[in-house]
Model the fold of this input.
Amino acid sequence: MVTIGKGAKVFSTGFSLKYFVKFEMNSYILVAKMQKLLIQFMSMNVPTMCVMSGDTLAGGLIMSMTHDFRIASEKAKVQLTEFDIGLSFAIPYSKILEHTVGRKSVTMMGERYTAVQAQQEKIVDSVYKDQVECETLI
Done:
């Protein structure tokens, strides 16, 4: 199964902090729904791949980490922006990241990485230059 972001600007879960605050959504409900979705990705009986077609930040990065393989556009940047705004990190999310990249690397993910740097840190498996190379990797 391949998850591909729509467009080339951002790979996102669609979460909006502005919307969340405006409507005072219950954070426990949101975390539970997201956790259920992430568990579904991690429990699939087929290999999964995430195509990070653009900047992959916050929840988009966490979701990408639930896939077996991750490829990123050479123009993409990756970062856990939660650290920038002082949000606490839900335990299920940190466990997903620890399992994928290791405990030490999770704290480093508050930095913004280029796709090549993310590959060096083993956050992504491969970096592609164009659509043809992306399709070849898939």
